[in-house]
Amino acid sequence: MIHVRKVVPYALMVAVASGLYMIFQIFGKISDDGMTLFQILLSIKAFLALWLGLRGINQKLFKINPWLFKSHLFPFSFVVIIILLSQLMYI
Fold this sequence. Notes:
Elements: H1 2-26, H2 37-60, H3 73-90
């Protein structure tokens, strides 16, 4: 568990950085008809990932404990939701 606590916040920061890069490369233009399903799912994934990344940055770099949802169940559920959204985007 000691090693996990050292690695996970950095992994979240890398995931957020790569996710932001991918959004700028993949998102595309929003048409007059509105956002496509892919763009909607990508936006939801980006929001969840940014929340996780900010949590990781606050924990690791600034030594700030999470303000809300201090257990690991809530962030883990975000990760599971992100994986499920990825699968929906692939279909």
